[in-house]
Amino acid sequence: MFTGIVTSLGEVRSVKPRADNLHRITIACDYPRAGIDQGASIACSGVCLTVVDTGEEGGRTWFAVDAAAETLRVTTVGRWRQGSKINLERALKFGDELGGSDDVDVVPHRNHAGRACVHYFLGERAEGADLAVGVACRWVGGGCGRRCG
Q: Are 66 and 18 spatial neighbours (Cβ–Cβ below 8 Å)?
């Protein structure tokens, strides 16, 4: 889960085509290398990408991700070149402060099928009424069918 709060400015070091229609993208950042695990998710200008490698060069940390052809086609990732500046955000960890705004209310519940769902409400919630703007259910495996806004 991401808050949308940018925590670093990254710079694309390289974009190299690989097998299976993948592109390996190396991004320099200000995060400490020890804090970036392989398999970690990092939002790169809003696109969630998975770390496949890390290192240090010239006193700066870098991490690498693989982007599939579809990701390159439907997001801004396809326009990134060496030197492109991108916003970075680390995935939220349990216990991290959401910060930035107190306008987000995360409400877990069970739907009619007994599946656990989480609804994200923006704005105020009153007893028995949800004053939400354009927010829908998020549930692993699909939505519960309830519209929240």
A: yes
